[in-house]
Amino acid sequence: LLPSSLRKVATRGGETFVKEYYYKVFDRSRHDLFHFYRDSSLVLWNGNLKSGSVSSLRDFFLQLPTTSHFTSSIDCQPIPASQPGCSSILVAVAGTVKYDEAQPRPFMQTFVLTQDTSKEDRPYYIAL
């Protein structure tokens, strides 16, 4: 069993990432979305694996239609560190997304946020 303090930190970090950063950038300034990823990151989009350099992910995201995300549920769980000082957070998000002028559709997205000890200004990135 993980300590409740670790769960609270994971919840606070994951919820802040979702509510204050990721979907705001996705919907309003998608050209900056690549900052949440590293060259080692993997993106599974509608069953299709997207990987490679950060610039290839940026190009992929820029091709997507305009969106408006509305989150209704966020669940965050700590992933015990496989290496000392390098923890991760599993974040599951559910809600609705509106593409261009279409009707809102349900969506579900799962992230694994991993610590990047080399970046003090952005200590976590999306690994998966």
Please describe the topology of this protein.
Blueprint: H1 4-28, E1 43-45, E2 48-50, H2 54-62, E3 67-83, E4 86-99, E5 105-115, E6 124-126
Give a summary of the structure in a few sentences:
The protein contains two helices and six strands. The chain is an alpha+beta fold and 128 residues long. The mean pLDDT is 87.
What does this structure look like?
The chain has 128 residues and is α+β, with helices and mostly antiparallel strands. 27% of the residues lie in helices and 40% in strands. The protein has two helices and six strands. The protein has helices at 4-28, 54-62, and strands spanning 43-45, 48-50, 67-83, 86-99, 105-115, 124-126. It has a four-stranded antiparallel sheet, with helices on one face. The chain has a two-stranded antiparallel sheet with strand order 1-2. Strand 4 and strand 5 (105-115) form a beta hairpin. The longest helix has 25 residues, at 4-28. It starts with a helix and ends with a strand. The mean pLDDT is 87.
- Termini separation: 24 Å
Task: Report the strand count.
Answer: 6
Shape by Cα distribution: globular
- Helical fraction equals 25-40%
Radius of gyration, in Å, reads 15 Å
